[in-house]
């Protein structure tokens, strides 16, 4: 095998269970939008999951999750308004602590290092009541050259405030078509608690 094709040379690792589909306990196997198979070696896609701490038993539970191929993800992002895209890019360029962590790392980072603190605020995950995680994948591997990250609820609120009406309409259309769940789940995508999709 050519060295350049080895997983470690491409910064690929096996999909961590935290990114598995909650119901099946297995990796996502198709795009939520176009149903393209995702576990083929050449398939590129993202997985996003939102977690909330249950106030009754203090257990962290998934609230929503989805996998979407990069083609469909780009299609959705391209439908965002230019204002929203500029605002989001500026926000994360100015506030992304992940950049500092990657540039100052002394040793190999593990998935827990990426997901253990909010990429913007630095708040440890165990202190959060609600958060989202995001990762990019190739087939059955997680890509570390585009590191996974975790975002806390206050950051979700900040991003929501950056979105134009046009972009909000696009996200409403996307969540209405492709994200399903119980009635209480739908409330997280409505004002004032609207949670943006970070694809």
Structure report:
The protein is 32% helix and 20% strand. It is α+β, with helices and mostly antiparallel strands and 199 residues long. The protein has one domain. The radius of gyration is 17 Å and the shape is globular.
Strand coverage percent = 15-25%
How many domains make up the 3D coordinates? 1
The biggest beta sheet reads:
6 strands, antiparallel
- Portion of residues within helices: 25-40%
Figure out the total of helices: 7
- Uncertain runs are 1-9, 182-186
What string, H for helix and E for strand, traces the elements in order? EEEHHHHEEEHHH
Average pLDDT works out at 81
Cα gyration radius (Å): 17 Å
Number of strands: 6
| Oligomerization status of the protein chains | single chain
Q: What form results from the Cα inertia axes?
A: globular
Structural class comes to alpha+beta
Draw up the topology in text.
Blueprint: E1 12-14, E2 44-53, E3 60-69, H1 70-78, H2 82-95, H3 97-103, H4 111-115, E4 130-138, E5 141-143, E6 149-152, H5 153-162, H6 165-178, H7 183-186
Antiparallel strand pairs: 1-5, 2-3, 2-4, 4-5, 4-6
